[in-house]
Amino acid sequence: MSNKQQKLKIFIPCEEANHVCDKTQYKEATLWEKIKLSAHLIYCRACRKYTKNNSMLTKKIKESKVECMTIEAKKAMKENLKQALKESTL
Questions:
Q1: % pLDDT > 70, the chain
Q2: Its domain of life (predicted)?
Q3: Is the pLDDT of residue 86 over 70?
């Protein structure tokens, strides 16, 4: 690696590329991280696949329109389950 490449540190390992990919999905990556990821994806087929799968997963989750239960609903369900278990052991 040349001195210039060492100073810029544009070439990153796959582990770091995957981490930056994850950060990018949540809009937490800096511009410099995105540039380094793009450079890495030019030559790394495995990370291109990881990035593609990550993007597809994020898209599908957004499309799913999943709604979470409220805390109160979760507590009520837990109590109902406890009651049902208590009654089944009698």
A1: 90
A2: Bacteria
A3: yes
Query: Amino acid identity of 77?
Result: M
pLDDT at 43: 94
Buried b / exposed e along 49-67 (16+ C-beta atoms within 10 A):
ebbeeeeeeeeeeeeeeee
CA 12 to chain centre: 19
For the chain, percent helix, then strand, then coil, each to nearest 5?
A: 75, 0, 25
Q: Report d(CA 39, CA 46) in Å as an integer.
A: 14
Question: What tens digit of pLDDT does each residue of 48-80 get?
Answer: 999 999 999 989 988 988 788 899 999 999 999
The CA–CA distances, whole Å, from 25 to 18, 37, 79 equal 11, 12, 37
Q: What is the pTM (predicted TM-score) of this model?
A: 0.63
Q: Which residues are within 8 A (CB) of 51 and not within 5 positions of it... i.e. 6 or more apart?
A: 21, 37, 41
Spatial CA neighbour of 43 closest among 2, 11, 15, 6: 11
